[in-house]
Amino acid sequence: MYGPHEPRWQPSSYGHPSPYGQPPPYGQPPSYVREAPEEFREAPEDWGTPPEVMTSLARLRAERRSRIFPVAAAVVSLYLVSALMASWAADVMAIRLVGHLNVGLALALLQCGTTLAVCRWYARYARTHLDPLVAQVRAGLGYRGEEQ
């Protein structure tokens, strides 16, 4: 099998010979494919990053995932519940609560409020918990900031 960027061999029955000649035997690369230089054949897993930076980076990833995924799942599930109720429980969504405020409008307002609250919470959480870990990782990598 040839990839999308490799020339395809056409049999001579098409009336003209292929400019590329016969295809290579199966399992061998075409003649125009070169071997990678020795230093690029096996790359280390950590690419030379110091171990303390790797542990800081792993801690940063774990800290971010442990808080964000549950909160994001809660916001998405609230949206899905309101969307499903709007499509399959229209009678429930039309129940009036106060004046012109019905259940559907209340769920929409609740969704807007929770999204705003989650955005504000994440900004504060990133500033107080994640930014110090990012500073540790950058210091371990020798990052000095934007150079002018």
Please explain how this structure is put together:
This protein is mainly alpha-helical. Helices cover 57% and strands 3% of the residues. The chain is built from four helices and two strands; from the N terminus they run H-H-H-E-E-H. A two-stranded antiparallel sheet has the order 1-2. The longest helix has 39 residues, at 103-141. It starts with 37 loop residues before the first helix and ends in a 7-residue tail after the last helix.
What is the gist of this entry?
The protein is mainly alpha-helical and 148 residues long.
Descriptors:
two-stranded antiparallel ribbon, 148 residues, mainly alpha, flat
Main sheet specs: 2 strands, antiparallel
Mean pLDDT: 78
Number of helices: 4
**For the largest beta sheet, what order do the strands appear in spatially?**
1-2
Question: Hey, roughly how much beta strand do the residues contain?
Answer: under 5%
What form results from the Cα inertia axes? flat
Cα gyration radius (Å)? 29 Å
Number of strands: 2
Helix content: 55-70%
Structural class: mainly alpha
**N-to-C CA distance:** 50 Å
Low-pLDDT regions: none
User: How would you spell out the order of helices and strands?
Assistant: HHHEEH
What secondary-structure arrangement, pairings included, does this model have?
Layout: H1 38-41, H2 51-88, H3 90-93, E1 96-98, E2 101-102, H4 103-141
Antiparallel strand pairs: 1-2
